[in-house]
Amino acid sequence: MEYELPMSASLSVSWLTVDLNTAQKTPVRAENLSNTDLILECQAGFKPNRTAFAELVRRYQSHVDRLLYHLAPDWQDRADLAQEVWIRVYRNIKRLHEPNKFRGWLSRIITNLFYDELRKRKRHRRPLSLDAPYKINGDEIDWDIASDDPGPSDNLSTREFYAQLQTAIADLPEAFRTTIVLREIEGLSYEEIAEMTGASLGTVKSRIARARQRLQAQLQPYINS
Predict the structure, then answer these.
(1) What percent of the chain has pLDDT over 90?
(2) Which of 119, 138, 170, 176 has an alpha carbon within 20 to 30 A of 127's alpha carbon?
């Protein structure tokens, strides 16, 4: 007697590991769909169409990798976290009511996963990368980490500046650091950050302003030198 699995059978995502590796290399038929139509295609059936979902992975994998890097630059298991991000997307994509806001929704999943892992590990990290320019009161600070090779700019004041910068960033509360990443690295609007983090618009603006003031206060002696 032929037996069919019930619709409530647990969802298997074991194929995702393969698709994560192949989706970025081989374009699929869904490549001609707009981002919004691609999301709708993934939401159409009982579970996401594999071809459409693989194309979704291909389009947004770099975003996942980049945000995880900025949140947890010294974590060695970011690839595993990226895998978990896509599993969560696969399981919950039908809950996304506004497909045109997929990128923000995806960033929220990444951020939530980061905090979940942070709580599990019970230790603090420096989630803000130092490899992107940062602006304080309109003045851009180039905080690219210096090369290991000695050069004209490799002097005591430069080393002191970067050491102080890392300390200042590490001292920021986690909520401030995450908000700065989303604003300065991801380029999200205040409204998008508020929606993503569940904080009010006023809270988001306050966190960013206070983080900038704190960094400026700690780095001012090095900026003026």
Answers:
(1) 26
(2) 138
